Amino acid sequence: MNELIEFISENLQITYILILATFVGIEVIKSIPAVLHTPLMSGANALSGVVIVGAILVMLNANPEDYVSLALGFVAVVLGIINVVGGFAVTNRMLQMFKKKK
Amino acid sequence: MNELIEFISENLQITYILILATFVGIEVIKSIPAVLHTPLMSGANALSGVVIVGAILVMLNANPEDYVSLALGFVAVVLGIINVVGGFAVTNRMLQMFKKKK
Amino acid sequence: MDILLSIIYLVATVTFIVGLKLLGHPETAKKGNITAALGMGLAIFGAIFLSKENVPNIIYILIALALVVGGVIGWLIAIKVEMTKMPELVSLFNGFGGASAALIGLVEFGNINAASEATIVATIISGVVIGAITFSGSLVAWGKLNGSLKSVVKLPQYNLINNLFIIGIIAFASYLVIQGTGNPLVAYALLALGLVYGVLFVLPIGGADMPVVISLLNSLTGIAAAITGVLYDNMVMLVGGILVGSAGIILTVAMCKAMNRTLGSVIFGNFGGAAVADGVNKTLGTITNTTPSDSAIMMNYATNVIIVPGYGLAVAQAQHVIHELEELLTEKGVNVKYAIHPVAGRMPGHMNVLLAESNVDYSLLVEMDDINPQFNNADVVLVVGANDVVNPAAHNDPASPIYGMPILDVENAKHIIVNKRSMNAGYAGIENELFYNSKTSMLFGDAKAALTELVSELKGM
Amino acid sequence: MDILLSIIYLVATVTFIVGLKLLGHPETAKKGNITAALGMGLAIFGAIFLSKENVPNIIYILIALALVVGGVIGWLIAIKVEMTKMPELVSLFNGFGGASAALIGLVEFGNINAASEATIVATIISGVVIGAITFSGSLVAWGKLNGSLKSVVKLPQYNLINNLFIIGIIAFASYLVIQGTGNPLVAYALLALGLVYGVLFVLPIGGADMPVVISLLNSLTGIAAAITGVLYDNMVMLVGGILVGSAGIILTVAMCKAMNRTLGSVIFGNFGGAAVADGVNKTLGTITNTTPSDSAIMMNYATNVIIVPGYGLAVAQAQHVIHELEELLTEKGVNVKYAIHPVAGRMPGHMNVLLAESNVDYSLLVEMDDINPQFNNADVVLVVGANDVVNPAAHNDPASPIYGMPILDVENAKHIIVNKRSMNAGYAGIENELFYNSKTSMLFGDAKAALTELVSELKGM
Ligand SMILES: NC(=O)c1ccc[n+]([C@@H]2O[C@H](COP(=O)([O-])OP(=O)(O)OC[C@H]3O[C@@H](n4cnc5c(N)ncnc54)[C@H](OP(=O)(O)O)[C@@H]3O)[C@@H](O)[C@H]2O)c1
Ligand SMILES: NC(=O)c1ccc[n+]([C@@H]2O[C@H](COP(=O)([O-])OP(=O)(O)OC[C@H]3O[C@@H](n4cnc5c(N)ncnc54)[C@H](OP(=O)(O)O)[C@@H]3O)[C@@H](O)[C@H]2O)c1
Q1: ipTM score here?
Q2: pTM of the model
Q3: Helices and strands per DSSP (H, E), number in chain D
Q4: Residue nearest ligand 1's atom 43 by CA
Q5: Would you say residue B102 has pLDDT above 50?
Q6: Calpha distance D137→D47 (Å, rounded)
Q7: CA of residue C366 relative to chain centroid, distance
């Protein structure tokens, strides 16, 4: 509890950002039709690949001699970009299935 | 334009808060039934009375000898609290009209 | 900054968001209002007691006095006013909020000095101007709605003048931000300019469009509050203000959409208020008159009757008589319902509020989408003081200004009785083919008078 | 921090929000996906070129290599895989995202020293643990869905064990945050614990519940990304992660609701997967058998036929035959539609995706709420491999686990033909009264085989 209060007082604006972003996430998703659940899940999954930005930062900050960090960072970037590229591509394919044919 | 960029760079987190709050406002309101437009307008009006917090700060910071500031602050608090109290009370009365009778 | 105060503001902000969310659903709306009100109380409490230490007691006393005076005034107005006067009341309150923001700006203007940052100067100046605009604009809207400001005053070329005026204000304000200023008189000049612009902005807009204007001004007050929040680095004002600002804009657009108008056409005036009847010369056929006693007979022998209330019902204050009529018919075994069009009357929910005042059972009020399929089975539809919301031109005349607006499909009923005082047009200022329909009979007269007669005829049967 | 980079991140964040919004509407969903993808590309680009100066070239080369390798792999998997294998693919990708977060945590763990703030240590540790849980959990879910991990392994008292396990991890992590640590091995221990918990968490959950679990794990990955964002004070990761986190939770709950379950019953296992048929001993009456040729005759002379596809259609891969059947009937002047239940199959939209694969016209797929009133006019309803979604117990047996779930009202049709292989239960593991209805005839057999026969009979008429 004390830690939480400390965090809030030190990162007041971040706290607001967290709360507001949570509301945005909730409001944006609620009341969407069930058929879109799967593409939406897939799209959200692609978005969670944003963690790749962290992996890139790890590599940029790594000492070129520190092979362990470099290797871990490399793998992290590979996995992250698979998540991003694969995620968006799969979502796109799914959504293609939903479009009206003429 | 330059001022805008400067503001963003100096108040990065505030910028995020502004944008996220705008989205929350939009998402929360859209797709509400027309009958609720008037009570909602009234409720939002009461909320805009939050400006009274500023009026209170003016009074707290005023020098007790500075009659002009004190008077302006006093009027600002009076007007602000009318907006707040009146706004919530009117909204409440309106909503009472909507409740199902048994 | 005091951590407790920060948390209080945080909690208040969350109650605002949750409150607005709850306000958006009929079942939870009351709870939402109370939630937001509690949060506001918390924020005010925190601001008074936790913002600053060592404040002289006299200041606390003054604040308390101001709160009590204003609180009592606000409360009394709110509970005393008639239900049908609520829109103008919202406008009045909103004006007060704007005035408060402007006054804060005035005081802070006095603290500007050469060392002040440009951002600070900009927030103060925009606070004064926006506050002043919302204040005078809201007062004009209030006057129009309560009837003290009847006419639509349109200067020649008013759109051009207004636009030049606001550009002038912006230019002047930008100059002040860049050059800096020490002269306190400038603040009063800004205030005056804002006040004048507010009047110029609202004056040319028709009275019936006032709900939209009020919603827009309300959004502006929110922005003024947010600006003040930036000035004091105060999160609850900042986030709360932005919320009201963005929600207000969306609400304004939604209101326009429900009336089948664009925001532009409301502000720059297409037909609101002073519009002239369109196509009055077209021959639409002949009309059939009816009398209260004939109408009473028709309704007495009907199985299903649907009542369509409109603006005229509110004007005539006939909500009690219509309730009596409905009860009488129900006693006689007739199935009676009210068809509620979303923009019947002059504010959204106007009919709900009006009929609730005379204690009509809420479950008899049926929304447009639900009642429309039921007109097929209706023997008699009684249209009381409604016009545009039953105008078939919305369906079949692409040239009509209301084309595309969803309407109540009264034409599908077996018989239609229309009560109004004359053949005059309604809000949109256009002819209504429905009155010339062979199934329609016109029952001319003031709604209250005509319905009272109808009721006494029915009682005698 | 570089202002350009800040603005890039800001823009990317906005594209994420707008993209998610657009994804929520069928017409704009594709645009939403592309919007978010562009924003992501922008963020990645900015992170590489604007975060840091004077980075040795070798590092840029390595990053480029990693991006190309991973990008090509991701792209190839995504476009090669069959449509019906998509849910497990999402799970796999999600696992990779989690692994990425865990690896970042591992590296940063090495930089912890005595001077590190508790907040930093806490974010690193939770990044490792949450990332590991999502990684192993997603892999197990993937294995279950693609069939390599068939059985539901339930340790005795698995709920208790899992809860104790996670509490243990939290306690250990809190200890580390408070006491600090220098030993890098501890990071690997945390990683291992997270991996084990992920397996324990997903293993007892039935295969059919995997879409819900994947959505939950997806939400967790978002939270891991947000935590990493706090660590690097990086707004796009922070806001993007939180968005995915909260949207994912809401989506998970929505999925459960569409199946008439609670999140708790999915995780702690009520009937998913290994459930035993309920009330099998009840005598429900007798069933009527039919043959492909009789069914063909019936449908040939019908005016309106509604096809209800279910999970069995996907299992039998009969989407092409059913399309052939539908075309054949249409040629013969029969009016054919598909009734799409929102949770037919094993993932939301499963039937849409399946039927789209065989090029069924999208406009023939009618959603539950729209088709339900049309069953009255249907001469024949052909139920193919569907069970729970047409089980009347949802309406009339309050004791049934699916009671209250909205279903397709096939009972209202004149005749019902049900194709399945046996009298076995579906996902919910319960009997279905519909099969004993006097209007129902059972066409036993694998969907593909039975429909192929049906088609050839029809061709001969
Ligand atoms: N609800 C909102 O939020 C809102 C806001 C702004 C504008 N509007 C607009 O207002 C219109 C509402 O439609 P509506 O059908 O309710 O009203 P309307 O179209 O304005 O018609 C009202 C009719 O009532 C009659 N009337 C007036 N006083 C009367 C009295 N004392 N007794 C009997 N009849 C009387 C008038 O005809 P006589 O003069 O011949 O009696 C008039 O034709 C729509 O065009 C809507 O877009 C609505
Ligand atoms: N869509 C989702 O998101 C989702 C996710 C998880 C769970 N669920 C749940 O899954 C269920 C879906 O309902 P449903 O009606 O589609 O399916 P179901 O209730 O699971 O029934 C499928 C039926 O298909 C038959 N079948 C299996 N293989 C077949 C084959 N090769 N040929 C012909 N028939 C075959 C089975 O009977 P035989 O063995 O006798 O052939 C079974 O009774 C719901 O309970 C839903 O809550 C849905």
Answers
A1: 0.81
A2: 0.83
A3: 17, 6
A4: C426
A5: no
A6: 29
A7: 22
